[in-house]
Design brief:
The complex is a heterodimer of chains A (468) and B (277). Chain A is an alpha/beta fold and 468 residues long. Chain A contains 12 helices and 24 strands. In chain A, the strands form 3 sheets. In chain A, strands 5, 6, 8, 9, 11, 12, 14, 16, 17, 19, 21 and 23 form a 12-stranded mixed sheet that branches. In chain A, strands 4-3-7-10-13-15-18-20-22-24 form a 10-stranded mixed sheet. In chain B, strands 6-9-10-3-11-12 form a 6-stranded mixed sheet, sandwiched between helices. In chain B, helix 6 links the parallel strand 9 and strand 10. The chains are: A alpha/beta (468), B alpha/beta (277).
Chain lengths: 468, 277
């Protein structure tokens, strides 16, 4: 049938993220990866020696590690990628400071508008660098730091050095090592003791150039009793060749603090999205990951919460949508390293039109983690016979006194459900859309309204023309 | 001329097995037809075939709405043409709120030309109408916020089906055992509601109703103009309200002896169904 082709055309026409901005970059590192390129990035950023050494060591780790032998099929030529691309000379403090064509890009993505309406601060990253940053004045006065990580290395060296690479060391995995070697941009957030930030802080990551690698590095420290909600959005236009997005996100949630990290990722279908995200939660702290994965060719991402002290809690909610030519290998990791810690994982995946969605999750209870509780629910919805869903749950329990529950379900959109909705006048496409939106409803209702609307819209976009 | 739903020599197979073997039935708007017959005689099959269930294959015959063949239409198009079926076991759609679903459905049925993505009927207008209908059906407003049929009791499901019918205002409605699973009071309320909905149709024309039932209670406020008895995939006898009375007091013995061929087919179908279980 020609519906696949039609669908691609339709998606291309309506996908508002699929546009390329002609830009005047100020610097582009030579293509490929070697010690010179890494040293050059460090030099461009006027980094201290410790960071330069960290990068070079990480490159060695990257080169010594084999590719992961699980997850998805990664066909990347590491020498065919640009690792660093500087789009502007200076970061803007107002949108007027940002070069016109880049500002227009973010206008199209609706960022300045959202900033006015409901955000406490914004970072906008274009290729390798953050080109715009803002933070509400009263928060800055309270000592909140929200800056790009490069600036943080220069301006808050002690704070950065204390945590950088401690949660996710370069040795953790090949892509964490790659990021550690060539990282650029990303957000650094410090929320002082007791400060509760009411509105979200948002970062927006845009890849614009072809064969570009984006390696942002985010570090969030939420001090005792403090609260923050951080949101990241990611998009890129469609090119015929692949691009790579490989981020590292490290989070420390101290005693009785709370951190919520929401991702709505809608990469173009030729982006490899290989991301390591991990949080450590201390006494009575709460870490929540809300992870929406749409787009990309292959996503491998398993946000983790290590519960380090008694009473710490971790919650991970994720949605993955895999369509034609896409593999979402996503999931979650919870590690109970202290007594009376609690975790909950809810994962929902949808696969259609030959897409493949895998849930890969780890639930670990370490020796001595008495009275810890974990509840894992993963549901998969398969929209047609061409599509696929897998579940890989790993459970490691070293302690007797624990309560771990795991439920998994896989369902296909039922003919009977479709017929029922159609018998009420809904078209076939509207009916399957409605079934899908109902399926993800338990997660959508956890999102702030603005993001719930965006998420629903993205899912609808994915569903358009899905019925042949 | 009243509007009609006309079924001519309808043959329907499910998974290749013939179930209906030549059904003739004409329903005019404003008429109440009762369809009775033993379990498995093909009553629900007829309903599903009229509604356009893809698994019910029409192998011969015609279904026409006002002289227009509807066999090529899918269920959605039939709904928008004015046909409704209250199901015996409606499907649950987890995560989809009754109100959202009904607003979408109501918009499409009232504006059959609507294209996907076009505006829905205004929220305020819809909510007002929905609340009024729910009050008539003695349903709690909270119901609109629940997920479609998800965790509903048998009685709640049946009332939800009637609520949908009230909102969609069909020209023709098939009620498939809408009384099963309801207690006496609930059946009485259902019967009254159906009668009220049938009469309050727009444009003065009442609904045409096909009531599939085993009992007399649902017919209490919907006195059938015609009663049909189905056996072995055919309508073997048609009468007035007195035929319905005879069947629910005396059963199907007289019918069986009058129509031995259909009774034999019926027995075969029953045995096959029992073997399949």
């Amino acid at each position: 049938m020609s519906t696949d082709l039609l669908e691609d055309v339709a998606l291309g026409e309506i996908n508002k993220y699929d546009f390329i901005t002609p830009t005047h970059e100020v610097f582009r590192a030579q293509k490929g990866l070697n010690a010179q390129v890494v040293a050059q990035i460090s030099e461009m950023k006027r980094e201290p020696a410790w960071m330069r050494d960290f990068r070079l060591k990480s490159l060695q780790v990257f080169e010594s590690k084999p590719m992961p032998r699980w997850g998805g099929n990664i066909a990347i030529d590491f020498q065919d990628i640009y690792y660093y691309l500087k789009p502007t000379t200076e970061q803007g403090k107002t949108w007027d400071d940002v070069p016109q064509e880049i500002k227009e890009t973010f206008d199209k993505l609706g960022i300045p508008e959202a900033e006015k309406k409901f955000l406490a601060g914004v970072k906008a990253q274009f290729e390798s660098e953050v080109v715009y940053g803002s933070l509400q004045e009263d928060l800055a006065k309270k000592g909140v730091i929200f800056t790009d990580t490069d600036t943080a290395v220069r301006e808050y060296p002690d704070l950065v050095r204390e945590y950088f690479g401690r949660i996710i060391p370069p040795q953790d995995n090949k892509f964490a090592a790659l990021n550690s070697a060539v990282w650029s941009g990303g957000s650094f957030i410090y929320v002082p003791k007791g400060v509760k930030i009411e509105f979200p802080l948002q970062a927006y990551f845009r890849i614009n150039a072809e064969r570009m690698g984006q390696f942002e590095r985010t570090l969030i420290v939420v001090d005792e009793g403090a609260e923050v909600h951080y949101v990241e959005g990611c998009t890129a236009p469609m090119y015929s060749s692949e691009s790579l997005h490989s981020a590292v996100v490290e989070i420390i949630v101290k005693k009785h603090a709370r951190c919520r990290y929401t991702t709505i990722q809608n990469w173009a279908n030729n982006i490899y999205n290989l991301v390591t995200k991990r949080a450590m939660a201390y006494e009575g702290a709460l870490m929540e990951w809300i992870d929406g994965n749409l787009g990309s060719r292959l996503t491998m991402k398993y946000p983790a919460v290590y519960m380090m002290e008694p009473g710490a809690r971790g919650e991970i909610l994720s949605i993955a949508f895999a369509s034609k030519g896409q593999h979402q290998d996503a999931g979650a990791k919870v590690v109970h390293a202290a007594p009376h810690t609690k975790s909950r994982i809810i994962s929902k995946s949808i696969s259609k039109n030959g897409g493949r969605a895998s849930y890969r999750g780890l639930c670990k209870a370490e020796d001595g983690a008495v009275g810890c509780k974990s509840n894992v629910v993963c549901d998969a919805l398969i929209l047609d016979p061409k599509s696929r869903s897998d579940t890989y749950p790993y459970i490691e329990v070293e302690e007797q006194d624990v309560q771990i529950e795991h439920e998994a379900s896989v369902s296909r959109i039922g003919e009977e459900q479709l017929f029922y909705l159609m018998s009420r006048g809904l078209t076939e496409a509207e009916s399957s859309s409605m079934i899908v939106s109902g399926f993800i409803e338990p997660l959508i209702k956890e999102l702030p309204m603005e993001y719930a609307v965006e998420m629903n819209r993205l899912i609808e976009l994915q569903m358009e023309g899905s019925v042949g | 001329m009243p509007e009609t739903l006309q079924i001519t020599n309808l043959h329907v197979a499910v998974e290749g097995k013939p179930i209906l073997r030549g059904v003739h039935l004409t329903i005019n708007r404003g008429e109440v037809h009762a369809l009775m017959g033993p379990n498995g005689s093909g009553k629900s099959t007829l309903g599903n075939a009229i509604m356009g269930h893809p698994n019910y294959e029409v192998t011969e015959g015609a279904i026409e709405l006002n002289g227009q063949d509807i066999l090529a239409m899918d269920a959605s198009e039939r709904a928008r043409a004015g046909i409704f079926m209250a199901f015996q076991r409606p499907m649950a759609i987890p995560g989809v709120k009754m109100a959202d679903f009904l607003r979408h459905a109501t918009t499409n049925v009232r504006n059959p030309q609507r294209k996907e993505g076009e505006e829905l009927i205004p929220m305020r207008q819809f909510r007002k109408e929905l609340t009024a209908k729910m009050e008539q059906l003695k349903m709690d407003v909270e119901f609109a916020r629940r997920y479609v049929n998800d965790g509903f009791s048998g009685g709640e499901m049946k009332r939800a089906e009637i609520l949908q019918m009230a909102m969609l205002r069909p020209k023709f409605a098939i009620l498939d055992e809408t009384d099963s699973g309801l207690d006496v009071d609930a059946v009485k309320l259902a019967s009254q509601s159906i009668a009220a909905i049938a009469q309050e149709q727009e444009g003065g024309a009442e609904m045409g109703i096909l009531i599939i039932t085993h009992h007399d209670k649902l017919l209490e406020y919907n006195t059938p103009d015609f009663t049909h008895v189905m056996m072995g995939g055919r309508i073997v006898e048609t009468g007035g309200v007195e035929l319905a009375r005879e069947l629910y007091t005396s059963g199907y013995d007289r019918i069986r002896s009058s129509y031995p061929e259909e009774a034999a087919v019926e027995d075969e179908m029953q045995q096959a169904a029992a073997a399949a279980v």
